[in-house]
Design goal:
The protein has 170 residues and is mainly β. The chain contains two helices and eleven strands, in the order αβαββββββββββ. The longest helix is centred in the N-terminal third of the chain and has 11 residues. It has one domain: Immunoglobulin-like, CATH 2.60.40. A five-stranded antiparallel β-sheet has the order 1-2-10-6-8. It has a four-stranded antiparallel β-sheet with strand order 7-9-3-11, with no helix packed on it.
Length: 170
């Protein structure tokens, strides 16, 4: 019993024994990109002469959500031309127009460059940020240009392709 009391006294007395631990953490390059789950399908219809002549557009709000610990850019690429059952329409008749959506975090000193593009089967940058973001969303407008020149040799049909968005280090 005396030994126990002596140890307690020494642990809390003037002869304090100290040990130190150094902790080191590493934050790697963390990047993620998500498409709003309720917006996986983008359906644009050309149903009248005005739309055929002038095109059609559809804005998807908070369509892309990004998280990144460093500078980043968002790229877009189409898997193919717009495929119908019998014919194809060039995919560059569809434009992608990004704009700022909602975000969480400090964006002071951050510059975000937004670049509208005509779709292509080659990857193109549509968004570039000079800083990372906890969560940043972007709206995307999809626009079909005039399809008047396709009216004679392209039957009424559904034309589609798959679009892939990627986040890469800037």
């Amino acid at each position: 019993m005396v030994l126990f009391l002596c140890m307690v006294y020494q642990s809390f007395g003037q002869n304090r024994i100290k040990n130190q631990v150094e902790i080191t953490t590493y934050i790697g390059d963390v990047r993620s990109i998500q498409i709003n789950q309720s917006q996986f399908n983008v359906n644009l219809s050309i149903d009248n002469l005005s739309e055929l002549m002038n095109g059609q557009s559809l804005k998807k709000v908070n369509h892309i959500k990004v998280t990144s610990t460093s500078e980043y850019q968002i790229e877009v690429v189409a898997s193919s031309e717009l495929q119908g059952r019998q014919t194809v329409i060039p995919v560059n008749t569809v434009s992608i127009v990004p704009s700022l959506g909602n975000g969480i975090g400090n964006y002071e000193g951050n510059t975000i460059y937004l670049s509208p593009v005509s779709l292509s089967t080659n990857g193109q940058s549509i968004i570039r940020s000079t800083r990372g973001a906890i969560t940043k969303s972007f709206d995307v407008s999809y626009r079909i240009s005039s399809w008047l020149k396709y009216i004679e040799d392209h039957p009424s049909d559904t034309y589609s392709t798959t679009i892939t968005y990627s986040i890469v280090a800037n």
